[in-house]
Amino acid sequence: MFNISVDSTLNSSNWLDWIIPDAVLLPHKKKYNFRLRWLFGAGVFLFLFALSIHQYDEQEHQTRFTFSNGELSYIGIVQDIPENKPPRSIAINMKTASPTMRKIILYLEKKQMRQCL
């Protein structure tokens, strides 16, 4: 009743390709070894590039500071040892306390620093 020819049956290598992943069969298929490695490299490059742009934007966002029109006082925490900047200033890395919580660099004149101490 069924007329099955030899051409329409699946031979062993055909159905094996569907069941076993290509990673197992790679030694048998030498011409396909690493043919899409450039696609992997391009994907890794784009991922690392996007990650570095995102990291740069985050660091820049933390350093942005909006000044108000009036006088305000901020409480800050000194993050690093103050650096003497020639000829007349001292740079202090600080982080403001809540609610802003931003990183800032405070520049003071050396004369003004002596008066504060």
Question: Could you characterize what this model shows?
Answer:
Strands 1, 2, 3 and 4 form a four-stranded antiparallel sheet that branches. This protein has helices at residues 12-19, 22-25, 37-63, 110-116; strands spanning 76-78, 83-85, 89-96, 103-109. The chain has 117 residues and is α+β, with helices and mostly antiparallel strands. The model has no long low-confidence stretch (mean pLDDT 76). The protein has two domains: 10-64; 70-117. It has four helices and four strands, in the order αααββββα.
Kindly state the mean pLDDT as a whole number? Answer: 76
The class by helix and strand makeup works out as alpha+beta
Helical amount among residues, as a percent range? 25-40%
Termini, distance in Å?
Answer: 106 Å
The total of helices stands at 4
The proportion of residues in beta strands is: 15-25%
Q: How many separate domains?
A: 2
| Radius of gyration, CA atoms, in whole angstroms | 33 Å
Tell me the number of strands. 4
Question: What global shape is seen?
Answer: elongated
Please summarize the sheet with the most strands.
4 strands, antiparallel
Q: In terms of per-residue confidence, which ranges show pLDDT below 50 for 5 or more consecutive residues? A: none
Order of helices and strands: HHHEEEEH
